[in-house]
Design goal:
Layout lengths: L4 H11 L10 H8 L3 H13 L3 E4 L3 E4 L2 H13 L1 H4 L3 H5 L6 E8 L2 E9 L13 E3 L4 H7 L4 H14 L7 H14 L2 E3 L6 E9 L5 E10 L5 H24 L4
Antiparallel strand pairs: 1-2, 3-4, 3-8, 4-5, 6-7, 7-8
């Protein structure tokens, strides 16, 4: 099959944006993609016409609104949101804690839903946020269903796109092996002072669809409360997995 180079370059432009790099000048896009500036400019104009990019006066470009609809179709296709309907609310972890539903996309986790009591501690998680899977509870739980070499490849791809210190892959592999045996993971690497207890959600083929977690201040995830949270999270993940397998939503 013939490869269309112009489409490949357009994809590189779109993939240059990350959760931490939401707008890029033409010069920055050329530097990050290796595409000549004149060609990058023509691609950006075309993508803006299609709504896949939009121009930000004085700042360059950012991802456009047409991607929302496209991304929504991909999320809907997995059935994860429908399968989790009502599950997060029934977890009821208590004040200061909240539940999160995340979908694994490559080496990233995308948060699809969250629920909690009337009192919540400040959390980085928000619906629509894309975060490196190896830093989050939902992401680690999902990655634990994958072979170590595939985990490493996905993590390396994320780290190549997201500046920062790469994780110790051997330590991560050991952590995920423990999580795979236990059926859940306890993580405190996404936000200082916050701990999440998460379990993986398998798709009908047994591959990781995503994860579900209860998270909040570390001192609220201890003792008997931890045992209750762990059991509820594991049960909730199994429920969502069964619904994905059967196509049920409620």
């Amino acid at each position: 099959m013939t490869r269309v180079e112009a489409v490949a370059k357009a994809a590189r432009v779109l993939q240059a944006f990350t959760p931490l790099v939401t707008s890029l000048s033409l010069r920055q896009l050329a530097d990050r993609t290796g595409i000549p500036r004149s060609t990058a400019h023509a691609i950006c104009v075309t993508l803006c016409d299609a709504g896949l990019l939009e121009e930000v006066p004085g700042r360059g470009y950012r991802l456009g609104p047409a991607l929302v609809g496209l991304g929504g179709q991909v999320i809907e296709r997995t059935g994860l949101v429908g399968a989790a309907e009502g599950v997060l609310e029934r977890l009821a972890p208590g004040d200061g804690l909240e539940t999160h539903l995340g979908q694994l996309v490559g080496g990233w986790v995308v948060y699809l839903d969250r629920a909690g009591g009337p009192v919540r501690a400040p959390m980085h998680n928000r619906v629509g946020l894309r975060a490196p899977a190896h830093l989050t509870g939902c992401g680690k739980a999902a990655l634990a269903l994958l072979p170590p070499d595939e985990v490493a490849a996905r993590v390396r791809a994320v780290c190549a796109a997201e500046p920062g210190h790469p994780p110790d892959l051997d330590a991560l592999a050991r952590e995920l092996a423990v999580a795979a045996r236990a059926g859940f993971v306890v993580s405190d690497t996404f936000q200082p002072g916050r701990t999440s207890v998460a379990a993986p959600i398998p798709d009908p083929a047994g591959a990781p669809a995503g994860g579900i977690s209860v998270a909040g201040p570390t001192d609220l995830v201890t003792g008997p409360r931890f045992d209750r949270i762990r059991d509820q999270v594991v049960t909730a993940a199994a429920t969502i997995g069964r619904r994905l397998a059967t196509g049920a939503e409620a």
